[in-house]
What does this fold into?
Amino acid sequence: VKDTYRHFWLTIRCSLIGTFIGIMPGLGGSVAQWMAYGHAAQSAKTPEERKQFGQGDVRGVLGPGAANNSKEGGSLIPTVAFGVPGSTSMAILLGGFLLLGLIPGPDMLTKHVAVTYSMVWTIVIANVITVAVCFLFLDRLAGITEVKGHRLIPVILVLVYIGSYTSNSHYGDLLVTLFFGGMGYLMVRAGWARAPSCSASSSARSPRTISIFPQARYDAAWLTRPVVLVLIAIALAVIAYPFFQGRRRG
Amino acid sequence: VARKASLALAVLILLAAGYAVFAAKGWQWKAALFPLAIGIPLFCLAAIEIAWTLAAKEPPEEPAPNPALPWAWMIAFLALIVLLGFPIAVAVFMLVYLKVQAKEGWLFSIVLTAAVWGAFYGLFDMMLHLPFPAGWLLEWLGLA
It folds into this structure.
């Protein structure tokens, strides 16, 4: 709790990232968490400080945690206002709406505003209850970190394989898991950042399909639309920024 | 180690991007757009990374733990799953790993194996009814 107040603005910034990612349909919790993690890591001022990430710097936990909690609120916005679910859980919620005869759209902000507010308060109260429960069991939960590694490894491996198999009920997924495990291992050894590749692969589906629509409507001219140009400029700036920063530091 | 790993990754990405571009070459323009738009820059960046890594001076090597053993365990577990099916493989792997690799006592190994197997069976099989097929070996022997 103390750490949250010490890094107050980081928590706020990561919450904003989470809310923003939540608003965008199709980007899941993992994207929000990794983006917040990347942002928290960038907020480290010196390379030595940055090395502490992944080795117990509390900011690496605070950022993604804040983003993860705030993304649910964010993903409510497109669900309630437009009927476009921002995540899988929101798609289920949307199904519930339709069963109850609530049609998402402007009505939710005028006629059924009480329902919308009840959801807002549910999220607020749920977060408060989570914090209270966590305080009760904090000591026990912290004890998990003291379990010896070789006792955790087989349990984690079982969960990893079950998780990858059950997504499609196909043995090929186990090979894919092993392959990407190998990639991850090489990336750790090479000192490459894993977070961007994770968020890229989990959000890759949407740009692939979305890139078809503007092209069908405007042909190649969509590349010259102002919003597209601004987005491309931002992307290039984000890529170039670390180089300039590195050069400035010498 | 870091240099070799970087090189291996860059070569892997170069090959994947090269294949994507090569495969998309004969496709219709619309279908090929995405693989080409991603593949060509990726290919160039991977080539730059390879040149960069080769040109960089070799930093002093840090001793790294041998990765062969953990990989052998992971591959063995996968083989067990395919041959014997999840329910048997989970129990066998847990027990053998805890006893042989982690060098735990019999009591601890059996209790933890039973707990993990019970959780696996109770949650995934009984509650969620997920279909876990019997292993190939069992099917071949006609035991499934």
In short: Chain A has a mean pLDDT of 74. Chain A touches chain B through 31 residues (CB under 8 Å).
